[in-house]
Design a protein that fits this description.
8 helices; 25% strand
C-alpha cells in the first residue's frame, strides 16, 4: 500500500439559507430556528500530487428557480483559494441533489466520481414520487448522464480509494447512493460528511434531517462517520454554519468565505 499523501482541505462557502427548524430536523419542537440555518459549501482537497474538488454547487439560474440566494459562484470561490475549476481533473459528487451537482461547464477536464446506487436511484422508480424527486434537478441528472456518455464518469460501488490518502465511502440514508470523503491531513483522518450529516445537531441529538431515503441508514451513517474519522472533531458537517465559525480562515481576506479543515477547530 502506498504511503498516503497529505492533503490541505478547504471548505468554500457559496450560499446560505435561513430556514425554520422543521426544515432541518425531523423532530423540531425543541429546536430554535437559528439552529436550523444552512450554509452551502464546495470542498477542495489538495496534495502535492492531486487536486480533488468535492461537489460543484449550484448556479444563479438554479438559485432563482428555487428561491435561494447565491453569495458567489462556486467556481469563483475555488479560484479565491488557488484552485482553477477549468484545470481540475477530479471531481467527487457525493450525491446528485441540486446543491451538489451541476456547473458542468466550470469543469471541462474533470472526471466525476459517483456511486452506482446514486445514479440508479436518481433515474429510477423513486423519482416518480415528488417526496424523493424534489431535491433533484432533472437537468442536472440528465447532465451527469451526458457526462457518462462522454466517458467522464467513474462509478464507485461502495467504498474505494481514489488516491493514496483519499477515499470515498457509501453511507446512504439521505439518498440511496450518498457517500462521504475520507482525507489524510496533517491532523489525521478528516471526513467530509457532505449530506450524510447536514448539521452537527442532527447527529448529536439523533434527530435526522427530514429529506431522507432511509432514516435507519441515516442514523447508522452517523456511527460510520465516527468509524472513519480520527475523532468527532475530524467530522465535517455538510451544511453547518459552525464550520465557518470554528475553523480558521484561509487568509484574512477570505474570512467568511473559505476555512481550512486540515487544522484543528477552535
Amino acid at each position: 500500500m502506498s504511503a498516503p499523501d497529505v492533503y490541505e482541505v478547504t471548505a468554500v462557502k457559496y450560499a446560505h439559507n435561513e430556514r425554520a427548524a422543521s426544515g432541518s430536523f425531523m423532530q423540531s419542537d425543541d429546536i430554535h430556528d437559528s439552529e436550523a440555518t444552512l450554509d452551502f459549501f464546495v470542498w477542495a482537497c489538495v496534495s502535492e500530487n492531486r487536486t480533488f474538488v468535492v461537489d460543484t454547487g449550484y448556479n444563479q439560474e438554479t438559485a432563482e428557480r428555487r428561491g435561494r440566494t447565491l453569495i458567489r459562484c462556486p467556481g469563483d470561490g475555488l479560484k479565491l483559494i488557488g484552485v482553477d475549476p477549468a484545470k481540475v481533473e477530479d471531481v467527487i459528487i457525493t450525491h446528485l441533489h441540486y446543491d451538489h451537482v451541476g456547473n458542468f461547464d466550470l469543469f471541462p477536464k474533470a472526471t466525476y466520481y459517483l456511486q452506482d446506487r446514486e445514479m440508479n436511484y436518481a433515474t429510477g422508480r423513486n423519482m416518480a414520487h415528488q417526496v424523493f424527486a424534489h431535491p433533484y434537478d432533472v437537468d442536472h441528472v440528465t447532465g451527469i448522464v451526458r457526462e457518462v456518455y462522454a466517458g467522464r464518469v467513474s462509478f464507485v460501488d461502495g467504498d474505494a480509494e481514489l488516491a493514496p490518502g483519499l477515499s470515498v465511502h457509501h453511507i446512504g440514508g439521505h439518498t440511496d447512493g450518498m457517500m462521504s470523503v475520507r482525507v489524510w491531513t496533517k491532523r489525521g483522518w478528516v471526513v467530509l460528511a457532505s449530506d450524510a450529516l447536514h448539521l452537527y445537531a442532527n447527529m448529536e441529538t439523533t434527530n435526522p434531517f427530514p429529506i431522507v431515503h432511509s432514516v435507519g441508514d441515516m442514523v447508522k451513517g452517523y456511527a460510520r462517520l465516527h468509524e472513519l474519522a480520527d475523532s468527532s472533531a475530524h467530522i465535517i458537517a455538510g451544511h453547518d454554519p459552525r464550520v465557518m465559525a470554528e475553523y480558521p480562515p484561509v487568509s484574512d481576506e477570505l474570512v467568511g468565505i473559505a476555512v481550512r479543515l486540515d487544522v484543528p477547530p477552535s
